[in-house]
Amino acid sequence: MALDSPTLVSDLWYDDGNIVLQAESSLFRVFLGVLAAHSPIFNDIQKLPRSQDQEMHDDCPLMVLHDTAEDLANFLRAVYNSGFFEPPPSVTDFDTLAGILRLSTKYDIPYLRRRALRHLDIIAYTPSTLQDYDARESKQIIGNSLGFCIADLAREMDLPWLLPMVLYTCSLSFKGIVTGYVYKGKRRWMNKAQQVVCIEAIQRLMKHHRKVILRFLYWREVDGCKSPARCNEARLAVLEGCASYAPPESNPLGPFSGIFGQFVGKNFCKTCYIASRDAHLAAREALWKALPGLFGLPSWKDLKTLREQALTES
C-alpha cells in the first residue's frame, strides 16, 4: 500500500537493510535475517519466493503489518538494540512492555515475551496473600487508569493470574467502568466483556461486604464484655454509617486499622475491640480467598501455577 507521506522511523531505518516494514503510516527498514533468526514466523516469510507483483520501497520488498506503529517500533528496538529492553531490575514503562508483549507473542519470540511478562509482573504485582496485600497497599497502588489498561492487556494476552487484583482495583471505580477512563490525556473504554465481569463482581462484593465483612458489627454478646449495651449501641452506629459506604466506593479488603479501627477503638471496650478486629480479619481472609471466583477466575493456587509456567517456560 503506497503512502503519500510515509514517516521513516530514523533509528529503525538501516540504509543496508533488506526489507521495509510498514505499520500504519510508519516505515522501518531492517534486516529480515535478524528477525528470522529470532522468529519462526519471519523465518517462514524469509523462505517464501518473491512474487512478481511484490510491492517495493527503496528497492526493498515492502511488507505491510497490521500492528500499531508504536508497538512495532518498540518491538523492533527490543530485537535490534540489546540495551533498549533489558530484563528487570531494569525499568521500563507500560506502553513499551505492552507492545513488546503483543508482538513477541504474535511473532513467537519466547525470550522477549518472558521478559515483557516479568516487567508486567512488577508493574501489576499481584500479592499472594492478604498480608502481602496489606504490605503493598501503602507502597504500591495501581492507579485507576493504569489498572484498566492492565486489565484489558491481561485479557487480550490471556494472563488470568493478573486479573483478580487488577479487576478488583477497577471495580472500586464504577465511573471508570461505565464512562471510561483517561490514560495519557486520552479517554479510553474498558473491554465490554471486562465491564460486564466488573459490574457483576461489584454486586457480589456488595453482598459480601454486607453479609461477611460487616458481620462483626451485628448485635452480639462477647464473652468478657463489661458494657454490652454500650458496645452494641456503638456497633449499630458504625453499621448505620456503613450503609452509605459500600462497594464500589469502599474498599472491602481494606485493613481494620482504617476507619473501623479508629471508631471502634474509641467506642468499644477492649474485649469487644479485640473480638471485632479478629472477626474483621477473618472476614477479609474469606474475601481474599473468594476474590478470583468473584471475577469468574480459577483459584489462587491454579493462578499461581499459570503464572510460574508463563514466567519460566522455555
TrEMBL record:
Bilayer-crossing regions: 161-183
Database matches in Gene3D superfamilies: Potassium Channel Kv1.1, Chain A
Occurrences of domain BTB (ranges): 17-124
Pfam families to which the protein is assigned, alphabetical: BTB (PF00651)
Endoplasmic reticulum among keywords: no
InterPro entries reported in the protein's UniProt record: BTB/POZ_dom (IPR000210), SKP1/BTB/POZ_sf (IPR011333)
Name of the protein described by the UniProt record: BTB domain-containing protein
